[in-house]
Specification:
alpha+beta
């Protein structure tokens, strides 16, 4: 059993590193051929990874085994995956299969990046067509501006992989696999923002709109809620307090509040620091804390708090797919905490850290600029 558990951990690592289901299956095949019962033991443990790729691998294992007991376990595992909200195709029994069945298309695929500090993320939706390659739809969406960029192209499988890897190298965030129906949902949720702002007509998106909507499913909540058990996260104060550490993680490192919104509060801190009024450090700290509290109340009392809640929910899913489960839980915990009204006495640790990081980021730039101006003065 220990060897099977190690195998499952390797599968989890391979998925997180972006390996295809074909590559992963080929690494499993020698073991399955050597001992057919391995497939059954493996299928029972693979459901601990709530990923669409697991469904594909279970289908492949089902196809290569003739052991009735193993096939029964695989069917049960697929049912368990579906009960967790993972989009998995049902297994068609041999009796239901037509002798002359049509050429089967590969399953649809979806990918998404993390979210940057402006609320932008990259999405991919890949729809295979038997005998004629792939329709690849990709673009950037914003939670404030809608669809920022969109393209649709016909590609071969090899051409797509090469293009995907090229874009991935240039993107600061890793891409993770995501339910195609959810990627389509995100595109369709973003487009109304374009209409509200009366921006460009996005003709490429309009041409692809009907195909995207045919893939889309409606989701009442972000995808993370169907992949993580929220009972143990809700109300966990320790996990919520760990939220201040999220901004130290590479995937959140660029996050800050836009300059035009945080600038007035940064100017207040600058003035307090440069004030000619003689204040000791404790008095200065009281003034700083007052500025931070006003920033929190002024910036996160309305829509912006909801926007950050959704960003953290989406980032929790990305972290989970990258194999960073603890950080995923912390991100989701912070997001769930943002459903509550702001507490001026005990502010949300993540938001407080975001405000101070954003303020001192601007101040650091200002001090650097000031020091350069001083160094240009030529002493007599």
């Amino acid at each position: 059993m220990e060897d099977i558990q190690t195998l499952v951990e390797q599968i989890k690592t391979d998925i997180a590193s972006g390996k295809s289901n074909g590559e992963i299956f080929q690494s499993l095949l020698p073991l399955l051929e050597k001992d057919p019962q391995t497939g059954g033991r493996l299928a029972e443990l693979m459901v601990t990874i709530p990923d669409r790729m697991i469904g594909r691998l279970l289908h492949r294992i089902f196809e290569v085994t003739r052991e009735k007991k193993v096939r029964k376990i695989i069917k049960r595992s697929i049912y368990r995956l579906k009960s967790k909200g993972v989009d998995v195709e049902e297994i068609i029994s041999d009796k239901e299969r037509s002798i002359l069945r049509p050429l089967q298309a590969d399953p649809k695929e979806g990918f998404a990046s993390g979210i940057d500090f402006l609320g932008h993320r990259f999405l991919w939706l890949v729809i295979p067509h038997p005998g004629r390659g792939l329709t690849v739809m990709y673009g950037i969406i914003s939670d404030r501006d809608g669809i920022v960029d969109f393209s649709q192209e016909e590609m071969t499988r090899k051409g797509f992989r090469s293009f995907f890897e090229e874009v991935q190298e240039k993107n600061p965030f890793p891409f993770v696999e995501m339910e195609p129906s959810y990627v389509a949902f995100l595109f369709t949720q973003a487009y109304p923002l374009n209409l509200k702002k009366k921006g460009t007509s996005l003709q490429d998106y309009l041409r692809a709109k009907s195909e995207i909507e045919s893939v889309k499913k409606d989701y009442a909540k972000p995808l993370i809620y169907s992949t993580l058990q929220t009972d143990e996260i809700a109300g966990d104060d320790w996990m919520s307090r760990k939220g201040e550490d999220l901004l130290k993680a590479d995937i959140f490192y660029s996050w800050r509040i836009e300059e035009e919104h945080i600038r007035p509060y940064a100017d207040e801190v600058w003035e307090a620091e440069e004030s000619k009024i003689v204040l000791n450090q404790a008095q200065k700290e009281v003034r700083f804390q007052g500025i931070y509290q006003r920033a929190l109340a002024g910036l996160f009392s309305g829509e912006r708090k909801s926007i950050y809640q959704r960003r953290l929910e989406e980032m929790a899913y990305v972290l989970l797919k990258l194999g960073r489960e603890e950080e995923a839980k912390i991100s989701l915990s912070v997001a769930m905490d943002l459903e509550k009204p702001l507490n001026p006495i005990q502010p949300n640790p993540f938001l407080f850290q975001l405000v101070t990081k954003s303020i001192f980021g601007l101040l650091a730039e200002a001090y650097e600029k000031k020091s350069k101006e001083v160094s240009l003065i030529v002493k007599p």
